[in-house]
Amino acid sequence: MRQMKKGSLVATSLLLSSSLLFAACSEKPAENAAAPSPAPAKSGEAAKPATPAGIDMKTVKANIRWVYPGTSESEKEFAEGFKQKMKEKYPNIDIEIMYMSWADMEKKVAVMVNSGDAPDIMALQDVSNWAKMDALEDLAPYLDRKESSLHKDTFNEATLKYATIDNKVYALPAASNAFSLIVNEKMLGDVGMKLEDLKTWDDVEKAAKLMTKDGKYGFGYPLGAARFAFRVPFTMGYSNDLVISDTSDASKQKYIELLNHLKNLEPYNPKAHVTWGYPEMHRAFANGEVGMIASGTFYSSNVYSINPDIIGVSRNIAYPKGPSGSKAKAPVSSSGYGLLKGSKNKEVAWKLLEEMYTPEQNSITAAIVNVTAVKTTSADEVMKKAEKIYPKAIEGHKRILADMTKMLNDNSVEMDKILGQPEMEPIVQDNIMKMLTNKSTPEEAYKNIKTEIDKIKAQYK
User: Fold this and answer.
1) Do 169 and 57 lie in a common domain?
2) Could you point out which of 121, 254, 288, 438 has its C-alpha 20 to 30 Å from the C-alpha of 75?
3) pLDDT (tens digit per residue) in 158-179
4) With a threshold of 0.85, does the pTM exceed it?
5) For 255, what's the count of Cα atoms within 13 Å in the CB-facing half-sphere?
6) Are residues 354 and 278 in the same domain?
7) Is residue 158 in some structural domain?
8) Which CATH number covers residue 170?
9) Same structural domain for residues 22 and 40?
10) Is position 5 within any domain?
């Protein structure tokens, strides 16, 4: 875990952005389109600039499928709005938005790539597994083109670094994402506690216990979906100086402390939480049924359409310090879009990416979910758009943004890229499920997780 550079985060956190946009996948090559890609660079070398195809976007014909994991209403509205604007501007280009969850993307897109039916553009967070699969186009040559509207210095340095491996840029960062603890401040106050009282895991457990009464619960853990069953302890672990994939003997005690923390919180979760994914977790929080959830900078977009009033009583803080942790920490990454190496429409897809990252388009996405990775996006313009997106909760949304700025400045650490994470997620989920249903102890859960994660690591050596 590495502390984020404060200078770059201050610059980043002054702007607002969406953590999720969308992606696509092509059915047939564009007419009058793609120049061949350059030969791949050797590991550690930057690739030579790609040769521009010189396509005419007004006349070129192409079918673009865009894989998009956005689940909130505001994200879907943005996606459909972008599609419509591109159709008006480029009438011969058809965009199909393929809505699927992040978990489904990991499985379905991998099948498409392996079967020779690769998408053209795809939303990306951690690029490690996709790069290992050799599924992604290196975007460094495109960024090096003189005529390109996007260059490396267009993006916040820390977010671009997160999308880069061996000098190859596998995604263009659209947003900076942080995982954190969202607290219903009213529920907390009703049991005699304040936000500043949440300093340690013990404090979180105390608050959860006090808030669990009268049909309401203190915590909501989405254990029914592997991706999010993994993400919650992943988020907590940073505040105990632990990366959840670290199964070394030196981290054993920290790991067992993490599992015990989840075990201690279990009585303060609704029984249905074992079936929840992110939508159910955010819905329960939005309806005032749970008092705390591990979410992140994308929080507002997930609850506004359910209950805009909840944003006015919500606060966003780094997950409090664990017993072996040095301080409360918030892991920070980037999310954005990449081109698939197997795409038959790379030049058209690249032009669409350039459109997506214009200040006009990025300010819309920035207004949805919070911290932009694009330097040219205007904070004033973002706030104007946020007022239109969250008209019933704009003051609460502004306070959430202030919380995020403070958290990014004081508590951020670079999120680790975990090779093999998709395979690790169900292992963590299954063993935590057994532990929380009293079929194993935290020590037994740790032993099983360690054994299986070590096998996955060995496969990637």
Assistant:
1) yes
2) 288
3) 889 999 999 999 999 988 889 9
4) no
5) 22
6) no
7) yes
8) 3.40.190.10
9) yes
10) no
pLDDT for 380-411, tens place per residue? 888 888 999 999 999 999 999 889 889 988 99
